[in-house]
Amino acid sequence: MTRYGFLGPVGTFTQAALAGWPAAKGREQTAFSSVDKALAALREGEIDAAMVPIENSVEGGVSATLDALHTGDPLTVVGEVLVPITFVLAVRPGTTRDDVRAVGTHPHGWAQVRGWMGSELPDAVYVPTLSTAAAAADLAAGLVDSYQAAVCAPVAAQGTGLQVLASDIEDRSGAVTRFVLAARPGELPEPTGADKTTVVVYQYDDHAGGLLELLEQFAARGINISRLESRPTGDVMGRYCFSIDFEGHVRDARVGEALTGLRRVAADVRFLGSYPRADGQQASIQLTATDDAFADADRWLADLRGERTH
Ligand SMILES: O=C(O)C(=O)C[C@]1(C(=O)O)C=C[C@@H](O)C=C1
């Protein structure tokens, strides 16, 4: 039986993401206080899958997740979920706006309401918390005196009995966070025609055109990249690896060729999985990049080499 973990507590956007994963319904679901703890529990076998935030449409990549996924024992991504994001400003009953001198929330939450805060509560200082729901739960339980209001999901305010002072306080309406379900390496999800693959690529050295060499591997095979981020390797100043999401499944011919190309030009390639896209959007594949086109070219080469038997 699959045991699931998520960045908790109850009321996080991550829990909403897990609720959007049908196979997790009715299964054991454990809340962890950080992405690192959830992924450590997964690596140690205490849980079988962990839902973690990876990318927000306004604030970009969640570095804690990106780094925790590609360092340590290998993990693979087996699926993704998109969650619409909206925030409320929640307080203990009786607290007024004038009482709010500090606001607690997750760094990605703060980044999405900074503009609203600047105009509506310009003197309030920001207190980082482990998640938006943790900010709400600790405030409701009277565990904190460092902030008087939490920025969280409406459901987190309701669930903890906090009062909502303002709703829809996000600076950009329509924001979405993308979550991934990570598991220990095992069977790959089957290709669906609407898939994504995630890799982390380490270069041999820093040289002119180095990034272009990596990108060429995708361009030459007609592969669309949907996210590219450089992350410091942590070894020395200026040394980066690249975290890349692209369209297609490792079993697609064009993806296989791009991965072998990357493996040749890079010092290391960490494969983090091929999985169905949450939006179900089919990859647009040029006629020159279909599985048939690659098979045809392979047959042609085999003929030239006199290797073809049938
Ligand atoms: O704190 C939460 O509720 C989370 O699920 C984390 C998280 C994130 O890491 O981006 C998820 C969605 C929102 O963008 C803000 C915070």
UniProtKB/TrEMBL annotation:
<comment type="pathway">
    <text>Amino-acid biosynthesis; L-phenylalanine biosynthesis; phenylpyruvate from prephenate: step 1/1.</text>
</comment>
<dbReference type="Pfam" id="PF01842">
    <property type="entry name" value="ACT"/>
</dbReference>
<keyword id="KW-0456">Lyase</keyword>
<dbReference type="InterPro" id="IPR018528">
    <property type="entry name" value="Preph_deHydtase_CS"/>
</dbReference>
<dbReference type="Pfam" id="PF00800">
    <property type="entry name" value="PDT"/>
</dbReference>
<dbReference type="GO" id="GO:0004664">
    <property type="term" value="F:prephenate dehydratase activity"/>
</dbReference>
<dbReference type="InterPro" id="IPR045865">
    <property type="entry name" value="ACT-like_dom_sf"/>
</dbReference>
<dbReference type="GO" id="GO:0005737">
    <property type="term" value="C:cytoplasm"/>
</dbReference>
<keyword id="KW-0028">Amino-acid biosynthesis</keyword>
<dbReference type="InterPro" id="IPR002912">
    <property type="entry name" value="ACT_dom"/>
</dbReference>
<dbReference type="GO" id="GO:0009094">
    <property type="term" value="P:L-phenylalanine biosynthetic process"/>
</dbReference>
<keyword id="KW-0584">Phenylalanine biosynthesis</keyword>
<feature type="site" description="Essential for prephenate dehydratase activity">
    <location>
        <position position="177"/>
    </location>
</feature>
<dbReference type="InterPro" id="IPR001086">
    <property type="entry name" value="Preph_deHydtase"/>
</dbReference>
<keyword id="KW-0057">Aromatic amino acid biosynthesis</keyword>
<feature type="domain" description="Prephenate dehydratase">
    <location>
        <begin position="3"/>
        <end position="184"/>
    </location>
</feature>
<feature type="domain" description="ACT">
    <location>
        <begin position="199"/>
        <end position="276"/>
    </location>
</feature>
<dbReference type="InterPro" id="IPR008242">
    <property type="entry name" value="Chor_mutase/pphenate_deHydtase"/>
</dbReference>
<protein>
    <recommendedName>
        <fullName>Prephenate dehydratase</fullName>
        <ecNumber>4.2.1.51</ecNumber>
    </recommendedName>
</protein>
